[in-house]
């Protein structure tokens, strides 16, 4: 059938050739036209490829803190400058707000007027999950030691103390490092306008070389909806108390035995872990894992 069809239409092949030649001519002309347009607009293309200048609104960051002295935030401002940002203020066309304080209360009016393209280094509710009192007294969070908010729950606390007189307690406030060991009798004197809370001290903690320690995990949240949270599993931060834990004699004044403070003991000064961290060049997490495996 194909042969008969070709034979019955002897002009078909020449017409196909003409169409193909015409398409090639049009394609060639189109290529030359595109090249001409690009050549005539080199300046425009160059400007599109060029990075944004520091004076553009998209490269302005507002670094906010209550204090007029922001020298303690030099690492923040230096980082933004390194990436080409210009430091601005409240009235500038900023695209990034880096706030030291929780902005949804401190800068409530600005937060209600956010424009598309403006980003903030906090999200609504972050103040709750970074607040020691809110986290510790949230009964929906499992595995937390027993906690009482004061002065609201002082009566419940004193009742618990009467039932469990051997329990030890930590008192905490919202200040940085505002933690100290207390006797129950001290809590009874808390004033009505003093917001604080007490939390049961774990009586039999895991010790390494006789010292208590805490573990810091690096987490970043990049989106609320959809919820997107990244947990860095490559390493952790280990910090040890400055003094050995005294399990036999509870001394409320010896805070460094019970609480990890600013002058904590680093991992390289803990002999049982230094063998992994210093000699074997492992990370903090790997050193802890290796130590615990060796104890089994």
TrEMBL record:
Gene3D superfamilies: ATP-grasp fold, B domain. Keywords: Membrane, Transmembrane, Transmembrane helix. This is Tubulin polyglutamylase ttll4. It comes from the Eukaryota. InterPro entries: TTL/TTLL_fam, Tubulin_polyglutamylase. The chain crosses the membrane at residues 13-32. It comes from Amblyomma americanum (Lone star tick).
């Amino acid at each position: 059938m194909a042969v008969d069809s070709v034979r019955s239409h002897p002009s078909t092949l020449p017409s196909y050739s003409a169409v193909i030649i015409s398409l090639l001519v049009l394609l060639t002309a189109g290529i030359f036209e595109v090249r001409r347009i690009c050549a005539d607009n080199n300046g425009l293309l160059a400007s599109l490829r060029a990075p944004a200048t520091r004076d553009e609104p998209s490269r302005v960051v507002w670094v906010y803190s209550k204090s007029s002295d922001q020298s303690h935030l030099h690492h923040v401002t230096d980082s933004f400058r390194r990436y080409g940002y210009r430091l601005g203020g409240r009235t500038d066309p900023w695209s990034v707000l880096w706030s030291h304080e929780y902005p949804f209360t401190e800068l409530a009016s600005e937060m209600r007027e956010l424009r598309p393209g403006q980003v903030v280094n906090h999200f609504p509710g972050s103040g709750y999950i970074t607040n020691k009192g809110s986290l510790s007294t949230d009964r929906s969070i499992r595995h937390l030691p027993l906690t009482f908010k004061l002065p609201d729950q002082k009566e419940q606390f004193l009742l618990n103390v009467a039932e469990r007189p051997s329990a030890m307690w930590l008192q905490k406030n919202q200040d940085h490092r505002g933690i100290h060991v207390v006797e129950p009798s001290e809590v009874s004197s808390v004033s009505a306008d003093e917001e604080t809370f007490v939390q049961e001290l774990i009586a039999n903690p895991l010790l390494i070389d006789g010292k208590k320690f805490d573990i810091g995990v690096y987490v970043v949240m990049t989106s609320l909806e959809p919820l997107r949270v990244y947990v860095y599993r490559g390493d952790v931060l280990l910090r040890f108390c400055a003094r050995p834990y005294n399990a036999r004699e509870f001394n409320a004044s010896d805070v460094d035995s019970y609480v990890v403070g600013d002058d904590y003991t680093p991992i390289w000064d803990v002999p049982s872990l230094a063998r992994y961290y210093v000699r074997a060049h492992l990370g903090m997490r790997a050193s802890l894992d290796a130590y615990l495996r060796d104890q089994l």
